[in-house]
Design brief:
alpha+beta; single chain; 2 domains
């Protein structure tokens, strides 16, 4: 069973078979060896990315146009745990840093991500494990009970004329006000359009660090979801009105930094994690 000229007789024992497997030129063994080597290389890269990011999976594919022009549909985005490298400008909550610098603080600190001030975060809508996570930019940090209307961008609150006209003002709890970069499809804050309540730190999966154009298209082509194909969520001019009964506080989410095993298709969201 030895290859001619190699001087290896019939292998015996685990070491002998391993030596034969890694040195033989027989076609079936070479094919299997190439597959094993390729899979091993992919796993090694994945482990290195996990070691750096602190979350798994460390990359997501962008499904919609809500972050254009700074992120495009089909981009593959590397996501890192927000508490991995904590910026000084990040607000604190309950004595701990949130690890996220919103746009209103980032401008003064000279902190920019993806061509604009403020961190881009991946978060769970209302802390739900069943809803599709969203990848949008943190714009403001608001405290519980705060009237944040006066600090808001007038162009991002629809036709609301005061705090009472907004669903989540005063803020039901401390959290981030978020928004997509694409003013054409996402002209309003997520908390004005009703996409999510102010984003609690425990709802954050991680911060987007860099993107690889087009590579996420492969993941999107393979993606299947009971929710159907990805569609862009329409944006209305009117803000979401306050309901007759104040919404109940969202249930506490699992420990941050643990993304779902899969992400369903939907608008304004990252695609299935890879």
């Amino acid at each position: 069973m030895s290859d001619p000229g190699e001087g290896i007789e019939d292998p015996s024992g685990v070491v002998g078979w391993l030596r034969w497997f890694w040195t033989t030129e027989e076609a079936p063994a070479v094919y299997v060896r190439d597959v094993v080597t390729s899979v091993g290389a992919v796993l090694l890269v994945g482990l290195l990315l996990f070691a750096v990011s602190g979350i798994w999976p460390p990359m997501v594919a962008i499904e919609s146009s809500s972050m254009e022009p700074n992120m495009e549909r089909g981009d593959l985005v590397f996501v890192m745990s927000e508490d991995r490298f904590v910026p000084d400008a990040a607000p604190t909550h309950d004595g701990d840093s949130t690890g996220v610098v919103p746009a209103d603080r980032a401008a003064a600190a000279g902190h920019a991500e993806f061509n604009r001030p403020g961190d881009v975060i991946v978060y769970k809508r209302d802390g739900s494990e069943r809803e599709t996570p969203v990848i949008h930019r943190a714009k403001l940090w608001v405290g519980a009970g705060e009237n944040w209307y006066e600090r808001a961008d007038p162009d991002a609150v629809g036709n609301a004329e005061n705090c009472q006209a907004l669903r989540y003002c005063p803020a039901p709890h401390a959290g981030f006000i978020t928004k997509g970069d694409n003013d054409g499809t996402n002209g309003q804050y997520d908390q004005v359009s009703g996409l999510s309540a102010p984003v609690k730190p425990t709802w954050i999966i991680g911060t987007a660090e860099f993107r690889v154009p087009y590579l996420g298209q492969i993941r999107l082509l393979l993606q299947t979801s009971p929710a159907g194909p990805a569609v862009d969520r329409p944006t209305t001019d009117a803000p979401a009105r306050r309901p007759p009964v104040a919404p109940a506080a969202a249930n506490a989410a699992p420990t941050r930094g643990t993304p779902p095993a899969s992400v369903a298709a939907g608008s304004d969201t990252p695609g299935r994690a890879t």
